[in-house]
Design goal:
- The structure is a single chain.
- This protein is α/β, with parallel strands linked by helices.
- The chain has 16 helices and 7 strands.
- It has helices spanning 2-8, 20-31, 37-50, 54-65, 93-102, 123-129, 139-149, 156-159, 161-165, 167-173, 178-182, 204-213, 270-282, 287-303, 310-322, 325-337, and strands spanning 77-80, 107-111, 151-155, 193-197, 218-222, 237-243, 246-252.
- It has a 7-stranded mixed beta sheet with strand order 3-2-1-4-5-6-7, with helices on both faces.
- Helix 5 packs across helix 14 (287-303) and helix 5 (93-102) packs across helix 16.
- It is globular and about 60 Å long.
Amino acid sequence: MISLLKEVGRGKRGARDLSYEEAAQAAELILTGAATQAQIGAFLVAERIKMESPDEIKAFIHALRQRINTYPMTGSIDCAGPYDGRTRSFIATLPTAFVLAACGLPTTLHGSPSMPPKWGITLSDVLAAMGVNALEASREALVSAAARTGFLFTPTESWCAPLGELREIRKELGLRTVFNTAEKLLRFTEAPYMAVGVFHGTVFEKITNLLIELGVSRGIVVQGMEGSEDLSVEKRTRTYLIQDGASELFIVDPEIYELMVEVPEVEWTAELQAETTLSVLRGDAPLPYLNMVLLNSAVRLWIAQRAGSIEEGIYMARHAIEQGVALQKYTEWTEAIKPVPTT
């Protein structure tokens, strides 16, 4: 590990990107515990200062994927947002997932307890506020619920044990590391479609090209709310579309689809996120949050070729909500993952 540290830790001018093979070696040393805690911390900080290259990120993704539990879902979409949570925006991807499942598109969300640097509200926090302890649910229960409803939630640190083992050092560092990107792109379901959020425009092309190399056939990389995969209904959102090994810039304008609306500033809590999620699924949510879910559902249905256009996707999503099918999917899912009472 010391020889690799010398390459990435030479300072701003002297540091160089590792080759894929070198990064794969570093990943193995970290994930197997062969590297010391001091070496792991030094490597992660040096990489953060240098900025991880696509080959380095890819090597860590591949090393982690060798250590994950998978559950292939044919024709599914994987929606990947920030594991450090949200503080200023509605987590639209959660109700959107049940709308997508109601429209026949198998969908995966994944996450862990909140991480640095943001320490925001996470998917698991919201689910817990809804009475669902998804982090403690067994793999069998989560898989059974997915088979029944078309929605899978993956507690990443349970399905990829090394990430759980690295939690403490990541908390102590308090920085974004290569794992903040790698954990989002593990694709536990081998999904051919993805919606991925990024925060900085500088990493747009890096993540887009990385998804193509990882085998995503169609996808969308979104500079979304708080770095999430969620499109805004207040303004246009910059995205990159991926299709058949190529990518192109695509601007999503909610005004075109008559969904643009001002979103109020809210002091979000996990409980308020949960209440708003349920109100969307019931069809009685305030317009900004309903429109947010309609737009994100529509774009993802279009990406996954379940809708011929975004306009058609909006119609499908609205129908799934108004007919109660999305709420039914949520109800079925929660019933399926709750532990069976013992007598």
